[in-house]
Amino acid sequence: MIKSRYNTFASWIIISGLCLFFMVFVISIYSIYSETDIFSSSSDTKPIPVKIYLYLSLLGLSIFIFIVYKIKIVFIDYLSQQLITKNFITRKTLQYNFSELDGYYDIAVNHSRKRKYYSKAVGISKDKKIILIIDSYYCSNLSELRSGLEKLKYLGTDINWEKQNFK
User: Fold this and answer.
1) Pair 152, 98: CB distance under 8 Å
2) Is 6 buried (19+), middle (13-18) or exposed (0-12) by CB count in 10 A?
3) Which of 49, 121, 123, 139 has minimal CB crowding within 10 Å?
């Protein structure tokens, strides 16, 4: 069985983002319920509103969870010929047999809107729709995962995959 591994750079960003939002949240709660204001620099200046920090930290945390929600753990069991995906946050598991899948494509995924930064990816197809993308931006062992898919039919390189209906 082959399990996807995450790039360490992306995991450090996730951990540092969670720590930052947690620290701002704790400081905001402390400032609301304590008599001292840690955000004021001197007695004659107005303190920075603590509720703004609290709302910004909750907004940042919700955006962060929305981004991490898209990350999936991929298991490829080539002995029983199954592809298993598990959501990183909700732990919802989906299983696909190799017999019910059409095959896989080599695709490129753009991660930047301003500049053209493409990373290698593999798109798993079922009923002529790409149902799963294994991206080298998130997974550091894409070639190992791709070798586990050798029993599936290789469908070539799909350039126009973004125009298809993606589940």
Assistant:
1) yes
2) middle
3) 49
